[in-house]
Protein backbone atom coordinates (compact mmCIF):
# COMPACT_ATOMS: atom_id res chain seq x y z
CA UNK A 1 0.00 0.00 0.00
CA UNK A 2 1.26 3.48 -0.81
CA UNK A 3 1.47 6.16 1.85
CA UNK A 4 1.39 9.89 1.26
CA UNK A 5 0.83 12.88 3.49
CA UNK A 6 1.52 16.60 3.47
CA UNK A 7 2.73 18.74 6.38
CA UNK A 8 1.95 22.46 6.33
CA UNK A 9 1.78 25.44 8.68
CA UNK A 10 -1.83 24.52 9.48
CA UNK A 11 -1.32 20.72 9.58
CA UNK A 12 2.00 20.25 11.35
CA UNK A 13 1.72 16.54 12.07
CA UNK A 14 0.41 13.27 10.69
CA UNK A 15 0.16 10.04 12.71
CA UNK A 16 0.21 6.63 11.09
CA UNK A 17 -1.18 3.90 13.31
CA UNK A 18 -2.65 0.45 12.93
CA UNK A 19 -5.36 -1.41 14.81
CA UNK A 20 -3.78 -2.84 17.97
CA UNK A 21 -5.98 -5.93 17.70
CA UNK A 22 -4.58 -6.68 14.24
CA UNK A 23 -2.51 -9.86 14.37
CA UNK A 24 -0.28 -8.82 11.45
CA UNK A 25 3.17 -7.29 11.34
CA UNK A 26 3.24 -3.82 9.82
CA UNK A 27 6.21 -2.07 8.24
CA UNK A 28 6.10 1.57 7.19
CA UNK A 29 8.89 2.65 4.86
CA UNK A 30 9.53 6.32 4.11
CA UNK A 31 10.92 6.83 0.58
CA UNK A 32 10.90 10.56 -0.23
CA UNK A 33 10.44 13.85 1.61
CA UNK A 34 10.13 16.90 -0.63
CA UNK A 35 8.98 20.50 -0.69
CA UNK A 36 5.94 21.07 -2.88
CA UNK A 37 4.45 24.01 -4.76
CA UNK A 38 4.12 27.10 -2.59
CA UNK A 39 7.09 26.39 -0.31
CA UNK A 40 9.14 29.37 0.89
CA UNK A 41 12.93 29.45 0.87
CA UNK A 42 13.24 28.58 4.56
CA UNK A 43 14.47 25.57 6.52
CA UNK A 44 11.76 22.92 6.88
CA UNK A 45 12.68 20.29 9.47
CA UNK A 46 10.69 17.04 9.49
CA UNK A 47 10.85 14.83 12.57
CA UNK A 48 9.75 11.24 13.14
CA UNK A 49 8.22 10.71 16.56
CA UNK A 50 8.05 7.15 17.83
CA UNK A 51 8.82 4.98 20.83
CA UNK A 52 12.13 3.37 21.76
CA UNK A 53 12.67 -0.09 23.24
CA UNK A 54 11.78 1.27 26.72
CA UNK A 55 8.47 2.67 25.35
CA UNK A 56 9.66 6.27 25.78
CA UNK A 57 8.69 8.81 23.15
CA UNK A 58 11.60 9.98 21.00
CA UNK A 59 11.76 12.51 18.18
CA UNK A 60 14.41 12.22 15.48
CA UNK A 61 14.88 14.76 12.67
CA UNK A 62 14.98 12.94 9.30
CA UNK A 63 14.99 15.85 6.83
CA UNK A 64 16.08 19.48 6.69
CA UNK A 65 14.80 20.88 3.41
CA UNK A 66 15.30 24.32 1.86
CA UNK A 67 13.95 25.31 -1.55
CA UNK A 68 17.20 26.92 -2.77
CA UNK A 69 19.60 24.11 -1.82
CA UNK A 70 17.85 20.83 -0.95
CA UNK A 71 14.18 20.66 -1.94
CA UNK A 72 14.06 16.83 -1.97
CA UNK A 73 15.53 14.01 0.09
CA UNK A 74 15.47 10.32 -0.80
CA UNK A 75 15.37 8.15 2.33
CA UNK A 76 15.81 4.80 0.56
CA UNK A 77 12.78 3.17 2.23
CA UNK A 78 13.62 4.13 5.82
CA UNK A 79 11.68 1.49 7.77
CA UNK A 80 9.58 2.37 10.81
CA UNK A 81 7.35 0.44 13.21
CA UNK A 82 3.84 1.95 13.60
CA UNK A 83 2.51 3.89 15.37
CA UNK A 84 4.66 6.77 14.17
CA UNK A 85 4.07 10.51 13.85
CA UNK A 86 5.64 12.78 11.24
CA UNK A 87 5.96 16.36 12.47
CA UNK A 88 6.99 19.61 10.83
CA UNK A 89 9.30 20.89 13.60
CA UNK A 90 10.41 24.03 11.74
CA UNK A 91 9.24 25.89 8.66
CA UNK A 92 5.83 26.24 7.06
CA UNK A 93 6.02 23.65 4.27
CA UNK A 94 4.25 22.34 2.37
CA UNK A 95 6.33 19.17 2.70
CA UNK A 96 5.14 15.97 1.05
CA UNK A 97 6.11 12.56 2.45
CA UNK A 98 5.80 9.42 0.36
CA UNK A 99 6.43 5.78 1.14
CA UNK A 100 4.76 2.40 1.45
CA UNK A 101 3.01 0.29 4.05
CA UNK A 102 3.50 -3.47 4.05
CA UNK A 103 1.25 -5.85 5.96
CA UNK A 104 2.69 -9.28 6.71
CA UNK A 105 0.14 -11.76 8.03
CA UNK A 106 1.48 -14.10 10.69
CA UNK A 107 1.19 -17.79 10.02
CA UNK A 108 0.01 -20.28 12.59
CA UNK A 109 2.88 -20.65 15.07
CA UNK A 110 1.89 -24.15 16.22
CA UNK A 111 4.94 -25.78 14.60
CA UNK A 112 7.31 -27.21 17.19
CA UNK A 113 10.81 -28.60 16.75
CA UNK A 114 10.05 -31.86 18.54
CA UNK A 115 7.42 -32.66 15.90
CA UNK A 116 10.25 -33.53 13.53
CA UNK A 117 11.11 -37.16 13.26
CA UNK A 118 14.65 -38.32 12.63
CA UNK A 119 13.55 -39.56 9.21
CA UNK A 120 12.65 -35.99 8.18
CA UNK A 121 16.05 -34.57 9.09
CA UNK A 122 18.60 -34.43 6.32
CA UNK A 123 21.80 -36.25 7.21
CA UNK A 124 24.97 -34.37 6.31
CA UNK A 125 27.99 -36.30 5.02
CA UNK A 126 30.94 -36.55 7.40
CA UNK A 127 33.80 -34.10 6.96
CA UNK A 128 36.82 -35.88 5.53
CA UNK A 129 40.39 -34.87 6.37
CA UNK A 130 42.36 -33.14 3.63
CA UNK A 131 44.72 -35.31 1.56
CA UNK A 132 48.41 -34.50 1.65
TrEMBL record:
SUPFAM superfamilies recorded: Nucleoplasmin-like core domain
MF-aspect GO terms: chromatin binding; histone binding; RNA binding
Region of interest (Disordered), ranges: 110-132
Biased composition (Acidic residues): 110-124
Domain Nucleoplasmin core positions: 3-102
Pfam families linked to this entry: Nucleoplasmin (PF03066)
Subcellular location: Nucleus, Nucleolus
Principal subcellular localisation of the protein: nucleus
GO biological process, any: chromatin remodeling
UniProt KW Acetylation keyword: yes
GO cellular component: cytoplasm; nucleolus; nucleoplasm
Keyword terms: Acetylation, Chaperone, Methylation, Nucleus, Phosphoprotein
Annotated family: Belongs to the nucleoplasmin family.
Subunit structure: Interacts with NPM (via N-terminus). Forms a pentamer with NPM at a ratio 4:1 (NPM3/NPM). Two pentamers form a decamer.
Annotated function: Plays a role in the regulation of diverse cellular processes such as ribosome biogenesis, chromatin remodeling or protein chaperoning. Modulates the histone chaperone function and the RNA-binding activity of nucleolar phosphoprotein B23/NPM. Efficiently mediates chromatin remodeling when included in a pentamer containing NPM3 and NPM.
Name of the protein in its database record: Nucleoplasmin-3
